[in-house]
Every structure is written in structure tokens, then in C-alpha cells.
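User: Please fill in residues for this 370-position structure.
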């Protein structure tokens, strides 16, 4: 591999991977150090499969970058652009830096209430895939929409498994009602219906991530878009209609037409990470109603003259939607409280040795004077 991009053909190849003038400008300081841009296609714990101007290469993160970059946000994830140093004698490389992310989809790490988990980066569009089977769940879709808005990516709602739904139009109408400004497509991979609508969102260099619960058909949709059975698929469990994990790792796939797809494992749960502003934007109908409440800090519970509760009574606001909004707001408050407590404990741990040193110095001075 050459040490840096220096030809028009290289720029064209990288452009198919989503490279543009903004990323090129961010990369300039690294180019002078003999580094090469590449994009993370697969992350295997500490080993990464990268795509660059001259094909695939396996790489590891340099010890210096791992040491100097505090927190998990500095660790490369699928979709990241990185600055790598190719090895001279073998088809390997070392990742020296991660370029600033344009967008990033994240969640609260399962089982770790104060750690953020990055799922994928530099996503242009998220296909939020939902099944129209027994697992169809509007509050869950609202939760995902908050996370997508927080990521900075555009959202497209994909209602798959239309063949398993007895009233598709009612289900679709329930989604359009909560997200009227987001494109919503109904499809059936079994009947091979609706794929054309998704293809309209594909474009050379555009990165699209498929995100959703287990068993909603993300891998099957990718196979339909590719025209080949590339991704492994499995049927849902018959006893409860719940999905089973088929995709076990995140992967960036380059399509023949130049679009890029990111396949992600199904999520059993999606806990939001610091999404207060996006929560308000996603539930902007409730936020608008709240401006007419008597109290500015109205919790929409038992307060008098609450415009939000009045809308529920009048039938213009779904009680389920209000309940989900309040639940997500409560989760956000709890998360912030835990993070504040963790920061307080960490600060105490940091300053405690300093106080000990100061007290010791003070005692020594008193002893010397005596």
C-alpha cells in the first residue's frame, strides 16, 4: 500500500466508501505523517477489517492511540474513518487515529448504566426495521426514533413482514401518526414486495444502517437488496414470535451500485444515552402542548390545568404515547443522576490523595517548628 492518497483514482475509490471533501480536510494532518485513510468494515474485538483505496487490510489499534484516547468513544467502530499506517512487509496495518465522526448511533451499554456503547458511525440514513407480526410495538419504535434523531442520521421506517399482518393499513397509520415527517415503507421479503421503495434511498457513497430488534428481517432485506443470499438468516421462534440473533457482528457491506449497507445484530433492548433534546424533538406534539400548561415545570401528572393531560382526556393525544414519553424522560433523569454520582465518586477518588499530601505537609511543618 502507498503511504497516502495521492491520485485521482484513489479519490474515486475512496468516494465509493463515503469519502468526501470534509473527511479529506480532516485527514490532512495525518497525510503529512505518511498515513493512509481507510474505513472500518468489521470490528473483531481488537482486530479490525479495513477498506481502503487498495482493498482490504487487517489492522490493530496502536498502543499510543489506545493509551492517549480516553474512553470507549475513541475505539474504532464499524463505519469509522481511520488513519492507518500500512506495514511495509505484510498485508497488515496499524490504526493511529480515528477521524471525527459525522454521525454516530449509540445506546446505553446493556448492564452498564453509566457507559455509552457506540453501535456504528458515519451513517447517512438509518433503516429502522420493524416486523408487522406479533412483535409489532409502537412504543419501541418511538424509542428507536429518539436514538436515531440523537445520532444525527436521517430515519426511514421499514415495516417488514406485511404477509404476517391482517391489517397492514392500520399498523402503517399508527406509525405515520407518530412520525408524519419520516418516510415509512411497507414490505414483505417473503412475497418480494416493497424492495423497490428501499432501493430509492440507495446512492453511491451513501451509508445506510439497518437497525432493529432481533428477527425483524434485517439480514433478509440486505439479501434482497444485494440480489444474493449473502447474510445468514433464521426464522423467528414459533412459540412466542420473538426473533433470534442471526447477525453476530456489525459489518459494512459495499453494494455493486456503490451504496454502503451496515448490518447490525438485533437488539434485545435499547436504553437511550443522553437523548434529552432528541426526546423533546421526537415528542414535539407533547412539548407543544406543554407550553400551555399552568406550570412551566409541569410533570403532566397531578398538576392542575395541565394541557397535556387535558389533550388525553379530549382524545387528541394517545395515553400510550404520553406514558412512553414520561417513561423515557424518567429513564433519562435516572441516567443523569447515576452519571453525576459516578463523577462525584471519581472526583473524590482523584482529590483524596492530594488532601492527604497537603495534610502531611502541614503536619511536617508543625513538627519542624516544634
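Assistant: Residues filled in for all 370 positions:
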Amino acid at each position: 500500500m502507498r503511504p497516502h492518497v495521492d491520485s485521482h483514482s484513489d479519490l474515486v475509490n475512496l468516494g465509493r466508501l463515503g469519502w468526501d471533501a470534509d473527511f479529506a480536510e480532516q485527514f490532512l494532518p495525518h497525510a503529512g505523517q505518511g498515513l493512509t485513510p481507510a474505513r472500518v468494515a468489521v470490528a473483531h474485538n481488537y482486530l479490525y477489517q479495513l477498506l481502503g483505496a487498495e482493498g482490504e487490510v487487517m489492522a490493530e489499534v496502536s498502543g499510543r492511540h489506545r493509551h492517549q484516547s480516553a474512553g470507549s468513544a475513541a475505539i474504532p467502530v464499524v463505519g469509522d474513518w481511520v488513519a492507518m499506517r500500512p506495514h511495509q512487509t505484510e498485508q497488515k496495518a496499524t490504526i493511529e487515529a480515528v477521524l471525527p465522526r459525522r454521525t454516530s448511533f449509540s445506546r446505553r451499554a446493556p448492564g452498564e448504566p453509566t457507559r455509552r456503547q457506540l453501535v456504528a458511525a458515519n451513517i447517512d440514513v438509518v433503516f429502522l426495521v420493524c416486523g408487522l407480526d406479533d412483535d409489532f410495538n409502537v412504543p419501541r419504535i418511538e424509542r428507536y426514533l429518539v436514538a436515531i434523531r440523537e445520532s444525527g442520521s436521517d430515519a426511514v421506517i421499514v415495516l417488514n413482514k406485511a404477509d404476517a399482518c391482517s391489517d397492514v393499513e392500520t399498523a402503517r397509520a399508527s406509525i405515520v401518526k407518530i412520525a408524519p415527517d419520516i418516510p415509512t415503507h411497507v414490505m414483505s421479503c417473503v412475497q418480494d414486495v416493497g424492495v423497490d421503495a428501499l432501493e430509492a434511498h440507495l446512492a453511491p457513497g451513501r451509508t445506510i444502517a439497518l437497525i432493529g430488534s432481533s428477527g425483524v428481517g434485517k439480514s433478509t432485506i440486505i439479501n434482497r437488496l444485494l440480489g444474493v443470499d449473502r447474510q445468514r438468516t433464521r426464522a423467528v421462534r414459533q412459540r412466542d414470535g420473538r426473533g433470534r440473533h442471526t447477525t453476530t457482528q456489525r459489518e459494512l457491506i459495499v453494494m455493486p451500485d456503490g451504496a454502503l449497507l451496515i448490518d447490525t445484530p438485533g437488539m434485545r433492548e435499547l436504553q437511550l444515552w443522553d437523548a434529552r433534546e432528541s426526546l423533546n424533538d421526537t415528542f414535539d406534539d407533547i412539548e407543544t402542548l406543554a407550553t400551555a400548561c399552568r406550570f412551566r415545570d409541569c410533570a403532566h401528572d397531578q398538576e392542575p390545568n395541565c394541557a397535556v393531560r387535558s389533550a388525553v382526556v379530549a382524545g387528541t393525544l394517545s395515553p400510550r404515547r404520553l406514558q412512553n414519553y414520561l417513561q423515557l424522560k424518567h429513564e433519562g433523569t435516572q441516567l443523569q443522576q447515576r452519571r453525576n454520582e459516578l463523577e462525584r465518586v471519581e472526583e473524590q477518588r482523584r482529590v483524596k490523595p492530594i488532601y492527604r499530601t497537603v495534610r502531611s505537609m502541614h503536619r511536617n511543618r508543625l513538627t519542624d517548628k516544634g
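For context: Residues 1-9, 236-245 have pLDDT under 50 and may be disordered.
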